[in-house]
């Protein structure tokens, strides 16, 4: 359940990052790169937080 929650938050953060970068005029490939980095970083951060809270 904790991993599923981490994936959902990571996807949500990636969509927000993509939307913000496109809004500020970035090229589509740059926006995808930003969204990808945000997805990985958010997923790892959520897993780290869940591990420290004893959920994993």
Q: How many helical stretches?
A: 2
Structural class: mainly alpha
Share of β-strand residues? under 5%
Spatial gap, N to C terminus: 9 Å
Q: Average pLDDT across residues?
A: 94
**Sheet with the most strands?**
none
Helix amount: over 70%
Spans where pLDDT lies below 50 across 5 or more residues: none
Which overall shape is indicated by the principal axes computed on the Cα atoms? Answer: elongated
Write the layout of secondary structure elements.
Elements: H1 2-23, H2 28-52
Helix pairs in contact: 1-2
Can you characterise this structure?
The chain has 56 residues and is mostly helical. Helix content is 84%, strand content 0%. The protein has helices at 2-23, 28-52. The chain is elongated. It starts with a helix and ends with a helix.
Quick overview of this protein structure:
This protein is mainly alpha-helical and about 55 residues long. It is built from two helices and no strands.
Task: Give keywords.
about 55 residues; 2 helices; mainly alpha; single chain; about 0% strand
């Amino acid at each position: 359940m904790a991993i599923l929650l981490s994936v959902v938050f990571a996807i949500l953060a990636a969509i927000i990052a993509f939307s913000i970068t496109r809004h500020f005029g970035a090229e589509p490939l740059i926006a995808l790169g930003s969204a990808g980095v945000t997805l990985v970083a958010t997923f790892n951060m959520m897993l780290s937080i869940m591990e420290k809270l004893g959920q994993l």
